[in-house]
Specification:
Largest sheet of chain B: 6 strands, mixed
Strand order of the largest sheet of chain B: 6-7-8-3-9-10
Helix content of chain B: 25-40%
Largest sheet of chain A: none
Radius of gyration of chain A: 30 Å
Structural class of chain B: alpha/beta
CATH class of one domain in chain B: Alpha Beta
Oligomer: heterodimer
CATH class of the largest domain in chain A: Mainly Alpha
Number of strands of chain B: 10
Helix content of chain A: over 70%
Structural class of chain A: mainly alpha
Number of helices of chain B: 11
Distance between the termini of chain A: 63 Å
Strand content of chain A: under 5%
CATH superfamily of one domain in chain B: P-loop containing nucleotide triphosphate hydrolases
Strand content of chain B: 15-25%
Largest interface: A-B, 29 and 38 residues
Shape of chain B: globular
CATH topology of one domain in chain B: Rossmann fold
CATH architecture of one domain in chain B: 3-Layer(aba) Sandwich
CATH superfamily of the largest domain in chain A: ABC transporter involved in vitamin B12 uptake, BtuC
Chain lengths: 401, 267
């Protein structure tokens, strides 16, 4: 079943949902990255919760004028309006009161959401049979997804991505160094508003699939996941789009492959799975890599200290050091240095002297910055440079290999 | 000269305004109800190195930020090369305090310097080899050429500061404004930065530095602007950096012996 779902063989609705979700995942991942880089990830939570009153009011308005209360475009317009109102309140609170942004987010989020829930209850008492499943906007509902709904997501997502392509440079500059950006004449607060506007667009477009409570996961988790794999902001953006799209696609397929699996939450769990894998296994920033690096580092430190102790005829007390030296064939079982050990020890001591020269000389600054007491000096300097240093140190030019 | 009479030399200032790289008039900035900078006039002399000095919390950085429109002033005008600030943005390079950004931001050294080429690149312009070459050249000028592809998180404080300076150099500006570039950097960095700044001056550029180390003022700078919320003194080092002006700016915070020593050092 899952294979069928992944290959889009589960019928019209499932295919529509999978494609829509993927587009949403990509645009949410890319958009959310700029929020993440600006360290304002939680603002998206306030924005998304602030959509609820708008959805409800739009429904009430459309229904009371005799129209179809469930008209998606109308509902989304309403949600965009109330999200803007929430965003405006948030900005006003942070700028004009002593409330910090986190407190302002908490206030706006809960008040707007609370108001929305009240309206939702009111709607349920209005006319029977007209409830129209507005609760679906809370956690997303894909069961009755229409071609038009998918088109809304596709167009909304594409427009968002185009706009991001256009203003990615100013957004990155503002995220890294807002003061410098302001000094260059960039309209920092307008750029921030643009980011918020894009987030709002993605939120509104995504209401149908993942719902307003979980959309924040689609905005933030892919960016955080991508950060594990790269040290470049442009790559974070691309990877976040990839991870967002991937988890949405697989999540949508999984939820279609079995009855009663909710699409939105499954997508969120999929992106969490990617996050978990990255957290554990990412090559540089991952937890496992950090642990391995620590152990490797510890062994190298012990080995180095052991060699320096041998070179200077000092006793070695630490068991780990002795074990490592023995394993490397550098000392005999009784702790006396072998020929190989003596040579390595002499080399280690000489390298220390060489490093001392490198570190005191400004022209070697880039190399000196790599000094950690462990790195082989040959790996950062050329033979000629080392020979030059050896001339400075004096003493024997023959270094035991 | 102590600036006690505010109205003196109106004519002289009027002329200076026209060709001054940075002229500030009646600038007041406040956080809440307490002014951090109060009604300050400043006229930067072209082609010179000027130090802005004053005690902690005297409004040195705030004045600079307000002059650049980074923080909104309560009142005051700013002219850059005789025109409005916005008309002359391209001619100004600003080096913020390095503590003002997050150095764990996912970016490499060269990417930071390329931000200096923002105006040339525009919104969609392709990043070309000539842009990279320019960035590397600027890094070389501050002795950081070998660091181009390193992660900014791996840099020491002094190296971070030099990357910021390289970014400013990439702009090819005429007026350089630096906020505490020597704060918490090693001696090698201080030497590298000051030699770059001096080479800028030789090329006819104007340099303004928020500075905190009184001991090096006379050695590094041509002009001094002393501030303690209000302007205290402005002029050449010989005129404005005297025992009297320092006493006026720092009050009891500077030991008399220290003032005498500095005055002696200046001859």
């Amino acid at each position: 079943m899952l294979i069928d779902a992944l290959l889009l063989q589960l019928g019209y609705n499932a295919t529509l949902v999978a494609i829509g979700a993927t587009l949403l995942g990509v645009s949410a991942g890319v958009t959310g990255t700029f929020l993440f880089l600006r360290k304002r990830a939680l603002v998206s939570d306030a924005i998304s919760h602030a959509t609820l009153p708008g959805v409800c009011l739009a429904f009430i308005l459309m229904a009371s004028f005799g129209g179809d209360g469930r008209n998606l475009i109308g509902l989304l317009l309403g949600s965009a309006l109330s999200a803007s109102a929430g965003l405006w309140c948030l900005n006003w609170l942070t700028r004009n009161t002593r409330l910090a942004e986190d407190a302002a987010i908490g206030s706006v989020l809960s008040v707007f959401f609370g108001f929305g829930i009240v309206l939702l209850t009111v709607i349920q008492t209005m006319g029977v049979g007209r409830q129209a499943g507005l609760e679906g906007f809370l956690l997303g509902s894909t069961a009755g997804m229409l071609w038009a709904d998918a088109m809304v997501i596709a167009v909304g997502g594409a427009v968002t991505l185009l706009l991001i392509l256009l203003i990615r440079r100013p957004m990155t500059l503002v995220a890294f160094d807002p003061e410098y950006a302001a000094a260059r004449g960039l309209p920092v607060s307008k750029i921030d508003m643009a980011v918020m506007g894009l987030v709002m667009a993605v939120t509104v477009v995504g209401l149908k699939i993942v719902g307003l409570i979980l959309i924040v996961a689609l905005l933030i988790i892919p960016a955080v996941t991508a950060r594990f794999w790269t040290e470049r902001s442009d790559h974070v953006v691309l990877l976040a789009g990839l991870f967002g799209g991937l988890s949405a696609y697989v999540g949508a397929a999984m939820s279609a492959s079995a009855p009663n699996l909710p699409t939105g939450p499954i997508i969120v769990l999929m992106s969490f799975a990617l996050f978990l894998i990255s957290l554990l296994f990412a090559p540089n920033r991952g937890v496992l890599a950090a642990i391995l690096r620590h152990f490797k580092f510890q062994r190298r430190v012990h080995l180095r200290q052991g060699l320096l102790a041998l070179a200077q005829g000092q006793p070695i007390y630490e068991n780990l050091t002795l074990r490592l030296l023995r394993k490397g064939g550098l000392v005999r079982a009784d702790g006396v240095a072998t020929d190989k050990g003596k040579a390595s020890a002499a080399k280690a001591l000489r390298d220390e002297h060489r490093w001392a020269v490198v570190r005191s000389d400004q022209t070697h600054e880039a190399a000196a910055a790599l000094y950690d007491g462990l790195r082989k000096i040959e790996s950062v300097l050329t033979c000629d440079q080392i020979a030059e240093i050896d001339r400075l140190i004096g003493g024997p030019q023959e270094v035991p290999a | 000269m102590l600036d006690l009479a505010c109205s003196d030399g109106q004519v002289k200032q009027g002329q200076a305004l026209e060709n001054s790289p940075l002229a500030i008039r009646g600038l007041t900035v406040s956080y809440g109800q307490k002014p951090a900078v109060f009604s300050v006039d400043m006229t930067v002399e072209a082609g010179k190195m000027t130090a802005i000095i004053g005690p902690n919390g005297a409004g040195k950085s705030t004045m600079l930020k307000a002059a650049l429109g980074i923080v909104p002033p309560v009142s005051g005008q700013v002219q850059v090369f005789g025109k409005t600030l916005d008309a002359q943005r391209a001619r100004i390079a600003y080096v913020p305090q390095r503590a003002s950004v997050d150095w764990d931001f996912p970016t490499r050294v060269i990417d930071v310097v390329l931000m200096g080429l923002y105006r040339e690149l525009g919104l969609l312009g392709r990043l070309r080899a000539k842009h990279r070459a320019k960035a590397i050249e600027c890094l070389d000028r501050v002795g950081m050429g070998d660091f181009a592809t390193r992660q900014i998180g791996q840099l020491s404080g002094g190296q971070q500061q030099r990357v910021f300076l390289a970014r400013a150099l990439a702009q090819g500006a005429d007026l350089y404004l630096l906020d505490e570039p020597f704060a918490g950097v090693d001696a090698a960095t201080e030497k590298a930065i000051i030699s770059v700044l001096k080479s800028l001056r030789e090329a006819g550029k104007t340099v303004v530095v928020v500075h905190h180390d009184l001991a090096t003022v006379a050695e590094y700078f041509d002009n001094v602007f002393l501030i303690n919320t209000r302007k205290v003194a402005e002029g050449t080092v010989a005129e404005a950096f005297t025992a009297d002006t320092l006493q006026a700016a720092y009050g009891g915070r500077l030991a008399t012996a220290q003032v005498d020593k500095l005055a002696l050092a200046m001859g």
